[in-house]
Design goal:
- This protein is an alpha+beta fold.
- It has one domain: Immunoglobulin-like, CATH 2.60.40.
- Strands 1, 2, 3, 4, 5, 6, 7, 8, 9 and 10 form a ten-stranded antiparallel beta sheet that branches.
């Protein structure tokens, strides 16, 4: 190839490479500047889909994501869950042999040492719950064990696409 052809091709390749968007890290660590609390979280919550058809116009999605806080060495881990509203039943989360009923709605962020919760509600009609979790929950969510959210008679499960992200989160918390 001549230089006349090769130079424009190289310039175009460099230009296209510069336009590429950087990959988003699956696990993010951020500092809440107002409270001095470090938050470790997933880039976005995992999406769980209803395992059976739901009633007409019923939202088929539930969102789930762990997060951890560290405020001057005081560490805590939580599970954030967003469910469709108007279901009437409190959700339950299962992971292998672990099970927990989510009775409390998300507490005010300041009670967790934060300015705001690390995840935004996916829809106006979503109900957000936050529960404290221990190392057994973190290990289970990061393993190959299936987890689901049960809301009344409906079950919501993940397709497993976010297992690597959850495993990376669990490994980061163990550090």
């Amino acid at each position: 190839m001549s230089r006349r052809v090769l130079l424009p091709l190289c310039a175009a390749a460099i230009g296209l490479a510069a336009c590429a968007t950087p990959a988003v890290e699956a696990v993010q660590e951020r500092l809440d500047r107002d409270t001095g609390t470090t938050v470790i979280r997933l880039a976005s919550p995992a999406l769980l889909l209803a395992t059976a058809p739901r009633a007409r116009n019923a939202d088929p999605f539930v969102y789930l994501a762990p997060f951890a806080t560290n405020r001057m060495g005081a560490r805590a881990a939580y599970l954030w869950v967003a469910t469709p509203s108007g279901e009437g039943a409190a959700p339950a989360v299962t992971c292998g042999t672990l099970s927990a009923a989510l009775q409390e709605l998300a507490p005010p962020a300041d009670s967790l040492g934060l300015t705001r919760l690390p995840y935004r509600s996916p829809a106006e009609w979503s109900v957000v719950y936050v529960m404290p979790i221990d190392s057994a929950w973190i290990e289970c969510l990061g393993s190959d064990v299936a987890f689901e959210v049960i809301l009344g008679e409906d079950h919501f499960a993940t397709d497993g696409a976010r297992k690597a992200d959850l495993a990376q989160f669990a490994a980061r918390i163990r550090e």
